[in-house]
Specification:
CATH architecture: Up-down Bundle
Distance between the termini: 49 Å
Number of helices: 10
Largest sheet: 2 strands, antiparallel
Radius of gyration: 19 Å
Shape: globular
Strand content: under 5%
Structural class: mainly alpha
Number of domains: 1
Helix content: over 70%
Order of helices and strands: HHHHHEHHHEHH
């Protein structure tokens, strides 16, 4: 009986990590928050792996997984973007030498929470679509969380990018793009392989090798670039498959 609950326990650890990450963000501890979201991503992989290995999949596990993902990969990244939006608006108003309209300010501060809304839609679509096994429709929420949780790390370790990442228009663009890409009708490839041969898995191997190279040379900056490379390769694959048809 306990064996059957192992995947659910891992899922609840994911939920706990995401919840504590939100507290860390609000306490201005961005490194801790990003680390916890990274741990949640690993736990999200592990609960599915454990469920398959132990043959312990269940409906309650499926629902718990979605709830945990909404907190760890929806709300926590949204709060990160909220804090970044706050900083960018302060910088923008200081540069302009005047305060923005209070209603416009509130609207812009609310914008990051689009990430929660679109994450919920993405998760609901995934739960009701049994075809998403070897590919996904729209960017998965953990991948989206990787992009956003890497931004505080880049700001902490790469001062030369702070003017770009704290530009209010860049922040708005990131929020809108990352929200939209989760529900976009784009088929994203999965890293699951039916066999380990290079033939038929060329794009997956290229993606893995490029990702490792970027992490070695670019460190924290690599994480958003890896996810954007993943989106680009998925678009190329989708376009090439349509041409063959």
């Amino acid at each position: 009986m306990i064996r059957k609950q192992i995947p659910n326990i891992i899922t609840l650890c994911n939920l706990a990590a995401g919840s504590i990450a939100i507290v860390a963000i609000l306490e201005n501890r961005p490194f801790v928050a990003s680390l916890l979201i990274g741990i949640a991503v690993v736990l999200d992989f592990m609960d599915g792996f454990a469920a398959r290995m132990l043959k312990a999949g269940s409906e309650i596990g499926k629902q718990l997984d979605s709830l945990a993902d909404l907190i760890s990969f929806g709300l926590a990244p949204a709060v990160i973007m909220y804090k970044i939006m706050q900083s960018s608006l302060i910088q923008y108003q200081n540069q302009m030498g005047e305060d923005l309209n209070p209603w416009l300010l509130k609207l812009m501060l609310a914008m990051p929470f689009l990430i929660v809304v679109f994450s919920a839609i993405r998760l609901a679509k995934f739960n009701t679509d049994d075809s998403q096994t070897y590919s996904f429709k729209g960017l998965p929420t953990p991948a989206n969380a990787i992009v956003i949780s890497s931004l505080p790390l880049i700001l902490l370790n790469n001062n030369e990018y702070s003017d770009i990442l704290l530009n209010v228009f860049v922040v708005m663009a990131v929020v809108l793009f990352q929200s939209a890409i989760m529900v976009a009708p784009i088929e994203m490839f999965s890293l699951k392989m039916k066999s380990f041969g290079f033939k038929g898995n060329e794009v997956k191997y290229i993606f893995v090798f490029c990702s490792l190279a970027m992490i070695i040379f670019l460190k924290y900056l690599a994480f958003p670039l890896i996810i954007w490379l993943y989106i680009l390769l998925s678009l190329i694959l989708q376009a090439s498959s349509k041409k063959r048809l």
